[in-house]
Amino acid sequence: MAYETIIVEVEDHVAQITLNRPDALNALNDQLLGELVSALQEAQGNDKVRCIILTGSDKAFAAGADVKMMSDKTFVEMFSEDFFGAQHDAITRIRKPIIAAVSGYALGGGCELAMMCDFIIASDTAKFGQPEINLGIMAGLGGSQRLTRFIGKSKAMDMNLTGRFMDAEEAERAGLVSRVVPVKKLNEEARAAAAKITEKSMISVVAVKEAVNRSYETTLAEGLLFERRVFHSLFATEDQAEGMAAFKEKRQAQFRDK
Ligand code: HXC
């Protein structure tokens, strides 16, 4: 499909989606989020795709929801259309792993979009923030919920109440991002991580994604039981037999997603 606000490239089993509204620092509007959801669903349905990378430009992953689009909206409009609710839910229903490769600004809805991905690799120039408070509003796509679970109450309150930006080093220390790399290496590092994932059994990959995400939805006891049962169930797969045989035979496993 032809897109105007994103670029999609599929290569080596990885779909790389680049947000591409440079004049607005990739601010999220209806068109961009609509195209992003379509591209993610296309990647989900494409058997060749085993991992997804979501990225922006060196200057901005995304500087938030499009303020110019939102500024004249009323409460009734925002509420009636459940502003960005459907897009949020669609993104979080993607079962394949999504790596966010973040450089520059990831603010407001941009930070929240990065947090909807499965993990974040940041460049050393990345800046995360929930500056909605400066606009007389607050976070609306996870900035008060996911961020709090990821980095704890004190830092989440700090970010949401003061609107300050967090640099990549602090974001890594706080657990928001999994690794920080020089900006010139960001794409290479994200692609290397994605390549590693593409070699695994997709059954394990999807099971891992479901189990880790479950930990945010349930009690520890229920989560541990869910994990154990899914773990048990993987012994019904050919990939388990292959993975363990390959280990014993000291060779690379050839997974077939069966
Ligand atoms: C619309 C935006 C934008 C945004 C930047 N631009 N962010 N347009 N919505 N969120 C536009 C600017 O208007 C400008 O266009 C161009 O991008 C370049 O931005 P500058 O401000 O000139 O760049 P710079 O001086 O480098 O400052 C970068 C910045 C600043 C610090 C990122 O742009 C900024 O503070 N942006 C807003 C960040 C923000 O408040 N995000 C939260 C939004 S609310 P022109 O045409 O003027 O040159 C949100 C809610 C989510 O995200 C919840 C949804 C449910």
Number of discrete helical segments: 12
CATH top level of the largest domain? Alpha Beta
Bound ligand species:
hexanoyl-coenzyme A
Radius of gyration: 19 Å
Lateral strand order in the biggest sheet? 1-2-3-5-7-10
The CATH superfamily of the largest domain is 2-enoyl-CoA Hydratase, Chain A, domain 1
What is the total domain count? 2
| SS-based class | alpha/beta
Please tell me what the overall shape is. Answer: globular
Task: Tell me the CATH topology of the largest domain.
Answer: 2-enoyl-CoA Hydratase, Chain A, domain 1
- Uncertain segments of ≥5 residues (pLDDT<50)? none
In total, how many beta strands?
10
Mean pLDDT: 98
N- and C-termini, Cα separation: 30 Å
Query: Secondary-structure element sequence?
Result: EEHEEHHHEEHEEHHEHEHHHH
GO biological process, one term: fatty acid beta-oxidation
Catalytic activity: a 4-saturated-(3S)-3-hydroxyacyl-CoA = a (3E)-enoyl-CoA + H2O; a (3S)-3-hydroxyacyl-CoA = a (2E)-enoyl-CoA + H2O
Family: Belongs to the enoyl-CoA hydratase/isomerase family.
InterPro entries: ClpP/crotonase-like_dom_sf, Enoyl-CoA_hyd/isom_CS, Enoyl-CoA_hydra/iso, Enoyl-CoA_hydra_C
